[in-house]
Amino acid sequence: MAKNPITIEVLETLDAIERRGSFAKAAEELNKATSAVSYAVQKLEEQLDITLFQRQGRRSVLTSAGRLILVEGRDILHTTARLANKAKEVATGWEPRIRIAVESMQSYPDFFGVLGEFLKAHPTVEIDVCEAVLNGGWEALELDRVDLIVGSPGPVPLQKGYRALLLARPDLVPVVASGHELASIATNPDALQDSLPEVRRVITHDTSIVDITRNAGLSSDGKHFYVQNIDQKVEAIMAGIGVGHLPRQRIQNQLNNGELVELALNECPIFEHYLAWKISHKGKGLQLLTQKLSVVFG
After folding, report:
1. Which fold has domain 8-90?
2. CATH number of 94-169+272-297, picked from 3.90.830.10, 3.40.630.10, 3.30.70.920, 3.40.190.10
3. Is-above-0.70 flag for pTM?
4. Which single residue of 13, 149, 209, 230 has CA 20 to 30 Å from 186?
């Protein structure tokens, strides 16, 4: 059987050229001479009898054949990287990378404070953080896009092999901008209930894609304005676009200086929030990190 000319090294070379846009910049990233990068590409082209790159101005652009090799080759690179990480975890018990989805309602100063302390003691562990809303965290955990979710609302999906710890509920406050028409009746519950059906709600999108999405907060009746995260929701409400619930720790300054006004409503979303991960994940880093997070958020 002829030797396969497509090696991990040549796939890394193609990846670097495509990302950096030139052989010279790829050589700099790979710590190689430009001539060595050019030779690797030329040798693969000769062995496969195809053209991989063509010039467009100063950039080296992949041909359709080159694009095919790179797209599928990147899957191979990702697989080999995961294999190396798994081997290291088996050998040492410490995973080299932990992927975390944090619910947008949680306190970011507390969350990143825990991560900072963890990394001081374990600087070789790489942390990858993304934001999740409602079902989005559970979906990411199920599909192995993350290893840990922080603050995702219940109920906990059953028969998924999850370990879940109940966290303290975030203090959610129904608010409106001080210049909004509703601010003048903010302390009158009856008047607020009568007026709410006509007021636009600012709603954060559920980040789940596969599962059924949901919304949380004020009644879903009436006009809606959708945003991607809590920071956008804060700005939208402050701009007078509508009303909504926000975590108190995110907006305390705006409440103190009067930019936002708390509404005297009894209606508030009630969810249990969880720290969760798959029981099958045995890494020492994850175990230690979950202990630290449960102390701060529990």
Report:
1. Arc Repressor Mutant, subunit A (1.10.10)
2. 3.40.190.10
3. no
4. 230
pLDDT tens-digit readout, 242-294: 999 998 988 999 999 999 999 988 766 667 899 999 999 888 999 999 999 99
The model's pLDDT over 134-146, given as tens digits with 9 standing for 90+, comes to 888 999 999 899 9
Domain boundaries, the chain: 8-90, 94-169+272-297, 172-262
What's CA 127's distance to the chain center, in Å? 11
Calculate ∠ Cα 53-57-62, nearest 5°: 20
Place of tokens 């990411």: 140
Name the E strands within 83-139.
Answer: 97-103, 126-132
Q: Is 108 left (phi over 0), alpha (psi -120 to 50) or beta?
A: alpha
Q: Which long-range contacts (CB under 8 A, 24 or more apart) does 60-64 make?
A: 60/17, 60/21, 60/22, 60/23, 62/14, 62/18
The token duo for 89 is 């975890």
